[in-house]
Design a protein that fits this description.
The protein is α/β, with parallel strands linked by helices. The protein is built from 10 helices and 7 strands. The chain has one domain: Vaccinia Virus protein VP39 (Rossmann fold, 3-Layer(aba) Sandwich), CATH 3.40.50.150. The structure holds S-adenosylmethionine.
């Protein structure tokens, strides 16, 4: 995929109009799996520390991490989403910007986490920045949707998106997302590309796990 395509998708998908319904949409469209996936990320943030949540959106993951006793900084491209975050959690510190160019000093964070960012991001620049802002021994955790490998799961996945497109007809502000998300996930390929980029940058302990019938995955790595 072209490096900047993901950015254009993100700009088109997320806006002021769908920001306030995002939390409910992600809950219902993933049949509650979003919460389960985010809980997995929480478990991987095994010590209390300073955490950067990239593409924090309306702050679902940031809030959970904060409730767990971590100090959080959030960064997101979409101002409307950060406005919703601020309404929910005034005390959460967040910045409107892109994950590929971070306004933080070197060796600053214990963890960098992100949920649903990799498919939108320029992975090389993203990994460079994560490496730079993480402390030695710090951990990066990425989570996003993937296209299932096994034929039976692919069938289910395709059926699910057919239904989602039907639902999108009644939800104007989500129509474009529901129509394009499937082909975007298929072409993204982040899951296959990211391990090599992490390795080349010098990250170690690279792990990956596919989740819920191979519809999503979590990948983590350590800065030595
Ligand atoms: C599906 S939402 C996920 C929000 C949140 N992480 C969650 O799990 O609920 C995707 C978010 O990624 C943000 N985003 C996409 N590309 C980005 C980038 N390059 N830098 C920062 N944020 C980005 C969008 O603005 C949007 O808020």
């Amino acid at each position: 995929m072209e490096k900047e395509t993901g950015y254009l998708y993100a700009k088109g998908f997320f806006n002021e109009l769908n920001a306030s319904s995002y939390d409910n949409i992600v809950k219902f469209t993933t049949f509650g799996q979003d919460h389960h996936w985010k809980k997995k990320i929480l478990k991987m943030v095994s010590t209390k520390g300073l955490v950067l949540d990239l593409a924090c959106g309306t702050g679902i993951l940031s809030s959970l991490l904060m409730d767990n006793g971590n100090d959080i900084f959030g960064v997101d491209l979409t101002y409307g989403y950060l406005k919703v975050l601020k309404k929910k959690r005034r005390e959460l510190f967040c910045i409107n910007g892109i994950a590929e160019v971070l306004p933080f000093k070197n060796n600053y964070f214990d963890y960098v986490v992100s949920s649903y960012l990799p498919k939108y991001a320029n992975l090389t620049h993203l990994v460079d920045e994560c490496f730079r802002v993480l402390k030695e021994g710090g951990k990066v955790i990425f989570h996003d949707f993937i296209f299932p490998d096994r034929a039976v799961f692919r069938k289910l996945w395709k059926f699910y998106f057919k239904m989602l497109k039907q639902a999108g007809r009644c939800l104007k502000s989500w129509n474009d997302v529901f129509n394009k998300l499937d082909s975007f996930i298929i072409t993204s390929g982040w899951y296959n590309t990211l391990p090599g980029i992490l390795f080349n940058k010098g990250f170690t302990n690279i792990t990956s796990e596919s989740l819920t019938f191979e519809t999503a995955a979590i990948m983590s790595a350590k800065k030595p």
